[in-house]
Prior knowledge:
This protein is mainly alpha-helical. It has helices at residues 2-21, 32-38, 42-77, 83-136, 158-165, and strands at residues 27-30, 141-144, 155-156.
Amino acid sequence: xxxxxxxxxxxxxxxxLSANAQKVQKYGHINTTEVVKVMPGYDTIATSLTAFQESxxxxxxxxxxxxxxxxxxxxxxxxxxxxxxxxxxxxxxxNLQKIIQDFAGSxxxxxxxxxxxxxxxxxxxxxxxLKKVAEENNYTYIFETxxxxxxxxxxxxxxxxxxxxxxx
Length: 168
């Protein structure tokens, strides 16, 4: 009798675990870039980022103009300078050119940081909406379509996420 109860209990546990393991997994996909672009306030970010980029571009152009003016002046007066003054001015030009190159190299990083800073609140709202949609609709995974090569059998959760964000 005890053996029968133990065997029955073991079979019931195995059946329960098998039923849970057989649970259907639900997959979704979304293009988050598309959603972020239609979120309220995104146009303000795009404008702000463009203005920041233009200010960096203006600064770069001013620096290169200053360099070119100094170089032109140096080229005109080089024959009239003593060797020590010429070396000093050449070194100034080399230093200015290095500053310009360093600035140009850091511009991309500055733009990336500014974009990340401006987009962070949108990313947080989007992440919260994705989590809500996943929990409410029992999604096991929601993938980003920009990184998928094939996604025929998943659900497009974009409309659900837009609804959760209050976007029509």
